[in-house]
Every structure is written in C-alpha cells, then in structure tokens.
Design goal:
Belongs to the UPF0053 family. Keywords: CBS domain, Cell membrane, Membrane, Repeat. It is a multi-pass membrane protein. The chain is globular. The chain contains 11 helices and 12 strands. The protein starts with a helix and ends in a 6-residue tail after the last strand. 35% of the residues lie in helices and 25% in strands. Strand 11 and strand 12 form a beta hairpin. By secondary structure, the protein is α+β, with helices and mostly antiparallel strands. The chain has 2 domains: 46-164, CBS-domain; 178-255, Uridine Diphospho-n-acetylenolpyruvylglucosamine Reductase, domain 3. The longest helix is centred in the N-terminal third of the chain and has 12 residues, at 28-39.
C-alpha cells in the first residue's frame, strides 16, 4: 500500500481502526509523522507562529544598505514590511525579488519590491492554513490578534515541523535552548517557552502572561534593552547577552545568592 492510499484509508471518516495493522508496522518516526498530520486540525496558528517579539520586520523606508545588512545578518529569506508602525504591515519582501532587482540594476525602493501580505487570525487551524498557503502559492502569513494588531508570522516551515519535527537549516542555532552554567546560572535562547524554562530550572515564572523568555524579559525592561543590561525579578537576574537589532537573542539567568543584591 502506498502512502497516498494509506492516508485515504487512515483518515477516512468513521474508519476507526482501518489499516491499524499497516500503521502498527510502520517505523516510529513514520507513525509520529502521521500523528502530526492528524493533530493539524486541533492546532491553531497561535500555537506554532513566530511571536512578534521574535520576528524580524523591515521598515518600508529602509535604505538599500540597511536592507542588505539585515539580509546578511538575519539569514532570513522573507521579511514582513511595515510603514510607521509594526501593526501596519504593507507587504512581504522576498530576498529573491531583491536579488533580481539588483541584477537588473533597478532603482531601489522597498515598497515597489514587496508582495501583497496574507493575513490570518491567531485562531485559524493550521490544517486550513496549509490549504490556503498552497492555494495562494505563498510560504508566509502575517498573524493578527482579535484586535487587528500584528502578533507574529507563520511560515510553511512551521506547519511542516508540526508533522515531521524541527527542521534545521544553515542559519538555525543548533546549541541547547537552556544551557546550565552551574552555580545557579543558565544561558538561554530568548525563544524558549517560558513554561518549559520554569520547569527546567525549577523556579516560578509568570507563565500565564508570556509565551517566551524574550517576551517576558522585554516586558521586564519596559524598553529596548542593550547588550549586558540587567533586570531583576523576584530574586532572579536576567542579563541580555546577545541582541539582533531590537530583538533579544540570548539571556543569562542568575539566581541571586542570599545576601547578594
């Protein structure tokens, strides 16, 4: 039985245990992939999107030099483009379109290079989004919250990772998200889930209000921090270790010893 016929039988409404024998004979990673497909209908965009705080946005007023620097430093192939405020996304810039313009030696203007943005609500299920992305032949959507504000982006890769697991490319950080430095200190990727972090280092963190460490730390500072700037919360120091533009990349967490300020 090929993959297509198996999926038709497995997902057939009311099929129950149809092809259970075939399913049980599959390798563990194949079973996991099929389970990932099944769970797409129960997963919302909000659960898989890249949060606004971690998204690299591009101003429509950016110069050629600023754009090329951003492309070089970020390693991304697509950027949401905004005018005046991030909540006003006017398009998506594809690096391949920039390269074509450079080859043709066209006059440079970001707004003339952007493609029309595709907006989706946080509540949309990703099985529906996958169909929409394929129908529109796009790989990225801008996510909006219930008030119409931009809350992040979601890419085809994010959905694929829900099916087959994380995809590492040449720009992904392959180091651990939470590195134990010993002595009550950790070096953390700012994108790490705050609840997972709290469990890993066994401290109470405000997991109800924030999804990621970066979002929490950004709120803690109340402004855009600078490298090595420190903020304290409930006897814990959060020290920014690495920044990328206005985005926090890594944070050092230090539990204060009694008697130390």
């Amino acid at each position: 039985m090929n993959a297509s016929s198996f999926k038709r039988g497995f997902f057939k409404k009311g099929s129950g245990d149809i092809d259970k024998k075939t399913y049980d004979s599959l390798e563990a990673d194949q079973q996991e992939m099929i389970q990932g497909v099944v769970e797409l209908s129960d997963t919302t965009v909000k659960e898989v999107m890249l949060p606004r705080i971690d998204t690299v946005f591009l101003s429509a007023d950016a110069s050629r030099e600023e754009l090329l620097t951003l492309i070089s430093e970020s390693g991304h192939s697509r950027f949401p483009v905004y005018k005046e405020t991030i909540d006003n996304v006017v398009g998506v810039l594809y690096v391949k379109d920039v390269l074509k313009a450079l080859v043709r030696n066209d006059p440079f203007e970001v707004e003339k290079l952007v493609r029309k943005p595709f907006f989706v609500p946080e509540s949309k299920h990703i099985d529906e989004l996958l169909k929409e992305l394929r129908r529109r032949k796009v790989h990225i959507a801008v996510v909006v919250d219930e008030y119409g504000g931009v809350s992040g982006i979601v890419c085809m890769e994010d959905i694929i990772e829900e099916i087959i697991g994380d995809i590492q490319d040449e720009f992904d950080n392959e180091t651990e998200d939470i590195l134990d430095l010993g002595g009550g200190a950790w070096l953390c990727d700012a994108r790490v889930n705050l609840e997972d972090l709290a469990e890993a280092i066994q401290v109470d963190l405000p997991i109800e209000g924030f999804d990621t460490l970066g979002g929490f730390v950004f709120d803690l500072f109340g402004k855009i921090p600078v490298k090595f700037e420190k903020a304290a919360w409930e006897g814990i120091d959060f020290i920014v270790q690495e920044m990328e533009g206005h985005k926090i990349n890594t944070v050092k967490i230090v539990l204060r010893q009694e008697g130390n300020s």
